[in-house]
Amino acid sequence: METRPLIDPFQRPITYLRLSVTDRCDFRCSYCMAEEMTFLPKKELLSLEELDRMATAFIGLGVRKLRVTGGEPLVRKDILTFFRAMSRHLDSGALDELTLTTNGSQLARFAGDLVEAGVRRINVSLDTLDADKFHEITRRGSLAKVMAGLDAAQEAGLRVKLNAVALKNFNESELFALTEFCAARDMDLTWIEVMPMGEMEAETRLDQYWPLTDLREKLATRYTLTPLTERSGGPARYMRLEETGQKIGFITPLTHNFCESCNRVRMTCTGELYMCLGQEDRADLRAPLRDHPDDDAALIAAIRDAISHKPEGHDFDYSRQRADGQMSRHMSHTGG
Ligand SMILES: Nc1nc2c(ncn2[C@@H]2O[C@H](COP(=O)(O)OP(=O)(O)OP(=O)(O)O)[C@@H](O)[C@H]2O)c(=O)[nH]1
Ligand SMILES: C[S@@+](CC[C@H](N)C(=O)[O-])C[C@H]1O[C@@H](n2cnc3c(N)ncnc32)[C@H](O)[C@@H]1O
Ligand code: SF4
Ligand code: SF4
């Protein structure tokens, strides 16, 4: 089989696949989903075997990091079967990292099995430590359940990073509480600037936007921040807080575009490949997969063709007091 690595038109090697395994979720975070969501019929979804074939094709083309996402990846039926199958690529050395981004609600059930499948580090999305605010932002989630999930993950030996979307008038007041919570539990913490995805009106989006430049200044009033050069293969830039030794990540699509070092593409649960989170360009990989059940040549040709159309970057911009670059699809569609 042909194994030339995937290089996009801007000479960026593509080594990171984010794979969404479901569009469903047990939460309805207001910045991500509509309150009333219509989910895809099951027959539209790639089967676990098809997800395996897709991921394996990308790994054969040089992808070294596989992040499973969604919707909520741990609500996909039998998802452990997929993780267990993917561990063969860790064993063979083809894959450096098998991981997931999760809302944490199902972790108490799955943490041990994920470790057995070779997962070492997970990202858990948590924006607030206040149970009422948590219920408000997720529209249905239970903070206690997520906390139990975090306990189980750490007991099972998983390294945990918390992802918090920075939201003005929501978790601004919890900057230090979240920092201290993570320091006490030896978790890294990454802040994300809210991106204009989904149906939210521009005005509401602008109202909730908390630039990480501001967040950083506020953090520096209490801690000494040292920039780190190390990277996790994702878009975050890291700083160390000298007083606690912990690492804080900053994902800044709005205030500091990181597209020049982009190394990733995203596959939806229906087999569409989005070449950029912030653009509509996509390629249907389900047809070449299903039309040729015993031969990956057409699939690989379709992947190469898609990568040859990868855009340079997103067009998100709030600077004109408008949510420019708005994408009507929900973040859960491509897995963030
Ligand atoms: N604009 C943009 N945002 C991204 C991209 N990748 C991740 N993000 C944002 O960062 C969030 C957190 O990403 P994670 O799922 O934790 O993955 P990661 O940051 O690659 O994780 P690490 O491996 O820990 O670096 C996503 O949900 C998105 O909101 C990207 O390519 N472009
Ligand atoms: C779409 S979720 C999928 C995985 C899982 N359900 C979770 O919440 O971790 C992935 C990430 O996208 C982030 N996200 C969702 N909508 C966003 C938005 N509008 N701007 C920035 N990040 C967003 C979430 O906070 C989460 O960290
Ligand atoms: S951010 Fe994650 S948990 Fe929240 S609604 Fe989106 S997919 Fe679900
Ligand atoms: S916005 Fe697009 S080009 Fe920029 S880092 Fe994300 S996926 Fe890559």
TrEMBL record:
- Biological role stated in the UniProt entry: Catalyzes the cyclization of GTP to (8S)-3',8-cyclo-7,8-dihydroguanosine 5'-triphosphate.
Its EC number is 4.1.99.22
Family membership, please give it: Belongs to the radical SAM superfamily. MoaA family.
Cite the Pfam families for this sequence.
Mob_synth_C (PF06463), Radical_SAM (PF04055)
What pathway is this protein a component of?
Cofactor biosynthesis; molybdopterin biosynthesis
Listed cofactors = [4Fe-4S] cluster
Among InterPro entries, the record links this protein to:
Aldolase_TIM (IPR013785), Elp3/MiaA/NifB-like_rSAM (IPR006638), MoaA (IPR013483), MoaA-like (IPR040064), MoaA_NifB_PqqE_Fe-S-bd_CS (IPR000385), MoaA_twitch (IPR010505), MoCo_biosynth_MoaA/MoaC (IPR050105), rSAM (IPR007197)
Q: Which residues bind [4Fe-4S] cluster 1?
A: C25, C29, C32
Q: What class of enzyme is it?
A: lyase
Name the record gives this protein: GTP 3',8-cyclase
Name of the gene this protein is made from: moaA
Q: Which residues participate in [4Fe-4S] cluster 2 binding?
A: C259, C262, C276
Domain of life of the source: Bacteria
Q: How is the cofactor bound?
A: Binds 2 [4Fe-4S] clusters. Binds 1 [4Fe-4S] cluster coordinated with 3 cysteines and an exchangeable S-adenosyl-L-methionine and 1 [4Fe-4S] cluster coordinated with 3 cysteines and the GTP-derived substrate.
- Quote the biased-composition stretches of kind Basic and acidic residues, using this chain's numbering: 311-323
Q: Where does S-adenosyl-L-methionine bind?
A: Y31, G71, S125, M195
